[in-house]
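dumping this here before i forget
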Amino acid sequence: FPHHTFQWEGIDGTRILTHFPPVDTYNCTLHGSELAHAARNFREKGRARHSLAPTGYGDGGGGTTREM
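structure:
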């Protein structure tokens, strides 16, 4: 998919701001290498100055750990 941030439009015309974090993983630990990847990978750089980078073990309810 060519975008990380876009307006999703439902069949009734309702629009929702949608963002796929450019860290490209469900398990982001916010290490420098992950943040550098996200900065390089963020496709809307020319149009947006910010992106989300949720941290934790995701897609299973793990969340952020103390070690992170």
